[in-house]
Amino acid sequence: MTSIIDKHRKNHGLGKPAIGANAKKATEHRAPFEEIEEHFRNCMLAPLEQAQQIEHADIVIGIPFYNESDTLPSVIETAIEGIRTYYQDSKAVIVCAGSPAGRQALESINSASNLMDTDHITFLLEDELLNGKGWGIRAIFEIAERLGADVVLLEADLLSRNENGDTIGLSPEWIRLLIDPIKAGEADMIVSRFDLHYFDALVCSHLTYPLLAAIYNQPIRHLVGGQWGIAHHLLRAYLRNPRYAWETEFSGYGVDAWLATAAVTNDARICEAHLGAKIHRRSGGKEDIVLRHLANALFGEILNDRDWWASVRNEHSVPMLIRLPAVGTPKVSVIESSEMKPHLIALKYQAGFHSYYSLYERIFSQETYNELQNLSRSDTKLFNFPPRLWAEVVYALLLAYAFGRGFTRGDLLNALVPLHDGFTASRAGRLHELAHKLAGLPSEEKERLLSLESEKEIDELADEFRRQKPLLIVAWDKEAASLEPPVPPVTFREFIPGVQLIVPTELVGRDGNTVTANGIYENIFTQHKLEFESFVFDRLHVSREADSVEITLAIKDFLRSVEDAFIPHSDLSTVEGTNQTVNTIFNIFPRNDSFSLIPKIAVDILYECPPLILLTKLGHANIASTLQEHDPCDVLALAQWTEEREYLKGLWQILSEELRPEHFAPSDIKFVIVRHEDFPALVELRNSTALDKLTSRIVVSNLHKGMGGEYPKLRYFTTIAKDIVEAERFGEIWQQFAEVQRDFGRKVVNSIEGHWGQEALSAHNIFEDGNQRILVERIRQMADRIAADGNQQLADKFVALADSYHLALILPDGQFVTCSAWSWASYSFKGGTAFPPPLSIHVERDWASREFLVEYYKAFGGNEREVEESIIELMSQGKESENLAPILLGTDSEADKMVPTTPVATFPEQPLAAELIRFDGNPILEPIKDHFWESKYVLNAGAIRLNGKVYLAYRAFGNDQISRIGLAISEDGLQFTERLTSPIFEPSAVFDQKGCEDPRLTLIEDRVYMTYIVFDGVTAQIDLASIDIESFIDFRWEAWKRHGLVFPGFTDKDAVLFPERFNGKFAMLHRVDPHIWITFSSHLNVPWSRKEHMILAGSTSGMMWDGHKIGAGAQPIKTEYGWLLITHGVDYAHVYRLGVMLVDFTIPSKLIYRSPNPILEPENDWEVGSDGKSWTANVVFTCGAVPRDKNKEVLGADDEVIVYYGAADSVLCAASVTIGALIPEAFRGGLNDKYTAPAK
């Protein structure tokens, strides 16, 4: 099945602001989800308790009701008769779920005698928030899922009558038709189809049928037939996301659209059941209500399923010649005719057009609008609304529904009603003309021909919708592209150095609120840091001033104490000692049964595929003699470690084709002890244990003498405990596969063949973390047992081991430290010494990865159960290596191309850069109290050298709390003797009303370009301005050209331009929190393109000086070795420091060097700041730098650069350093030849 995956993709693939805004509007009138869900859960307590007492059922007959007290008892009676007639050997339960108004109906069925001998659960959802058919269906599904039953849904107002000995309408046979294909394994869903008059169910004929056929490739004719058969395994698709269901038209007619589309996108096999005539209480005047409800629900499903249906090509050519598989046969019965007056319906269209013409004019093309307008004025006798036009207007309304553009969904749905009237009038008119021509025929023959013509027209309408689907996709993609943010919504965060978790920058949640990856990361990091510190400082009593070496030694001492206290005197180098150790682990570690291969089938497999190498090793000539001494499941498990690859491939092929659910059963998890000499494959993999999932056997070997590292018993304990948990979890998954039955063998083999995930957020890694999390909880339970046996000291050690099992952190000195018993034992076991490096660990990586993914997904509106279901489905498909982020969060498919591929190196792997040397005369600029515009703070200056002078364009902040830009001038770059008394640049628009901040100056050809940040009080954005050199020098500030916003509406900061083009394109650095991005453009006009973006360098992780965020600083400076970048970094305590990077001459997106250390950090009083005097404490921040030498364009190792920086966001300072000190020699050697000075 591809379904759950695609359903997740559909829910999260868009995430566009306009769509999110509409989603929010759509839910504003509803009670909060948490409230309505709590009400539902309270109402379900008693019914689910009854289901628990019943325990199990094969079939649930579900009947949602309103208050149909006169018809409901007979519906139940007929259903019971159907069960007794066709399924007398099956256990059935009648479940009636009523709306709050259904008290009388409930009393009528509870007093009915026919229910006495049948298990039944009848109740009301007595809460007005839960009013409607959809809630009743959900309640029925919850009960059926609990009982393990397939479901038949019936309506409560069904009737029947007897004609000539035949039952017309509801009959016991309906039960058989709606469940037989499911029981036979031939279908997962049955939809009802009735013999209807051609003027009945027009909403289905005109809207739902063509849309389902075109969009979903599922020609479901009567979507609101009301009677359904649903396989038990499909219920999970409906129940796994209650929030999603709540946000659809769940309570009304829209529930049918939800049932159908969820089945389709869950790869369900659907067939139709011909049930004959449908007799029920007609309620007139509902057509428009049904149309609005169904359109709203189906449009919503199409919107959410966008990624699914756009990727599914039309399986059948136009015209569409297929039909759904069917059971039953259409019955010949007298069908009541429906009165239809085309003239009156056309008039209704014309009146409706004049009510909505302004909306139509905005939504439809001019040509379409003109056609509709002409119809509004035409003679109703000549009224012709062709199928082409109907498909056009439906698709146009669908696009407007999806992308907003200022329309409310309520208006769009209301505007659909007159259009449907117009199309209905046109069709009715044509059929009336045909009826007139056929007037001479017998009435029955005439009606038959009219029915055939109507059927043909509806099929042609579906074909028209299919023809126009490619145009819809093109238009949809164009609308979606127009809503894409200026910069790709991609980011990554690292909990473990070098392990990038690539996800969307932010998402619009299902409640309409925005959630950010940064927010999720910060919450988790803060929690992990607190847990790490609590373990190290409080539990291990390490001094808070300790360095990373002292902390690591304390962790090792703790683990050694656990190793020494656990199973003392055991010798893992002997088979006897290994057996003693494993026995102890099995006795003390809590475990449950698995669900695995039964011995009889293991015997059959061994006879069909005898493991010849193993037989020889065991000293047997054939399987028969082997099985006299060995358990067949043990033999099958051992064969995995002796036989050649071809044997295993053949075995998997046979298992894939022949395994059946009945070949598996609940079973105890057992271990098999072997000598390492006999099974060298285990030793070669540097493992001591191996789980054979198929048989729930853990193969354990003894150790070579002197091997095992420092913590061999911890290694055995953690791996065996994890194998036990894994065996249990695979058993649970296979039980789910067994319930579905279809493709059981293939799914089992796919799940165990081994599909390792290279992506940090792969389904494999997240599943592995699930095993480790259960292991940790079992360790806590084990500690309780140890304490109960009187060994409190050892119990406390295991509690501490459990608490620290997932903890790891990179410390301020750049050293990565893990507390995990698994990682230390594994690293040492495999020959590692010193500290386990970050890329060798798995538990801490997967723990943080899962937490990040799940918390982000939950904040978005999902839940952890959905994550698990996605993993299980991928495992069943053999796709465990797939990345879950695109599936659950909608991560951009091109995201990997935008993220740096080289991990950030730390010292000593990366050499240090020298620190800047502060100017003795700091600060070089301070506020001037007499200038209102710069009376409080001066900071963050862009710098440029023109005609031998250094010009500082600095940010000034005055009493009015608005940022402006001032100018100071220096001959030597350090003594600024000239300073203008007025700003050279200040706010001029709404988007910069709170200030122009952090200017950076770049000389490009004959103009000075200034990138700066504008702030309106809410959003910080990048703006661009320029001025010719002569005007700048002459202070003619009226010559500024304000180009405008570079990325309109997008929060962005720290922008600076490169002074040269690269392959004809300009390049800009900017900071999309928390990383430095680089963007290219063929021009300097604004806005810049949405293309050619990538992350140049990301923030690091943990407590590193640049672990919180980084940003561009001074304008790029050309050196003989590449472009020098002075950047800033911020740590977890929000301290700002400066760093340095070097990027390639011709490919500035290629990072050559990044300093692992800061080159300047707050130390002096004006940098650290003080209360009442400084704007922001602990800040050094640069926007500009210049060469010390006035005549140098390209700097060498001995050349000096002056860096200007804001200190505590309050004053301006300067520092200097040589290029050679900033760029270590390893990154200078051999690179000089790379640069060739441009010809003059």
Q: What shape does the CA trace take? A: flat
Strand order of the largest sheet: 3-2-1-4-8-7-9-11
- The fraction of residues assigned to DSSP E strands is 15-25%
Percent helix range: 40-55%
Describe the fold and architecture.
The structure is a single chain. This protein is an alpha+beta fold. The protein folds into 4 domains: 272 residues, Spore Coat Polysaccharide Biosynthesis Protein SpsA, Chain A (Alpha-Beta Complex); 142 residues, no CATH class; 366 residues, no CATH class; 318 residues, Glycosyl hydrolase domain, family 43 (Tachylectin-2, Chain A, 5 Propeller), CATH 2.115.10. It has 38 helices and 43 strands. It has an 8-stranded mixed sheet, sandwiched between helices. The chain is flat and about 110 Å long. The N terminus and C terminus are likely disordered.
How would you briefly describe this protein structure?
With 1240 residues, the protein is of the alpha+beta class. Mean pLDDT is 89; it is low at 1-29 and 1230-1240.
Topology:
Blueprint: H1 3-12, H2 17-27, H3 33-54, E1 59-65, H4 72-86, E2 92-98, H5 103-110, E3 119-124, H6 133-147, E4 150-153, E5 158-163, E6 166-169, H7 173-183, E7 189-193, H8 202-216, E8 228-230, H9 235-239, H10 242-247, H11 255-265, E9 270-274, E10 279-280, H12 287-304, H13 306-311, E11 326-327, H14 342-363, H15 366-377, H16 387-403, H17 409-437, H18 443-483, E12 490-493, E13 501-504, E14 506-508, E15 514-516, H19 517-539, H20 548-565, H21 575-588, E16 594-597, H22 599-608, H23 612-618, H24 623-629, H25 632-639, H26 645-658, E17 664-667, E18 670-674, H27 680-684, E19 689-692, E20 697-701, H28 712-740, H29 744-752, H30 763-788, H31 792-804, E21 808-810, E22 816-818, H32 821-829, H33 843-860, H34 864-876, H35 884-889, E23 917-918, E24 937-946, E25 949-957, E26 963-970, E27 976-979, E28 996-1004, E29 1007-1015, E30 1020-1028, H36 1029-1033, E31 1041-1045, E32 1053-1057, E33 1066-1072, E34 1075-1081, E35 1093-1097, E36 1109-1112, E37 1117-1119, E38 1122-1130, E39 1136-1143, E40 1151-1154, H37 1165-1168, E41 1180-1187, E42 1200-1207, E43 1211-1218, ...
Parallel strand pairs: 1-2, 1-4, 2-3, 7-9, 9-11, 18-20
Antiparallel strand pairs: 4-8, 5-6, 5-10, 7-8, 12-13, 14-15, 16-17, 19-20, 21-22, 23-43, 24-25, 25-26, 26-27, 28-29, 29-30, 30-31, 32-33, 33-34, 34-35, 36-38, 37-38, 38-39, 39-40, 41-42, 42-43
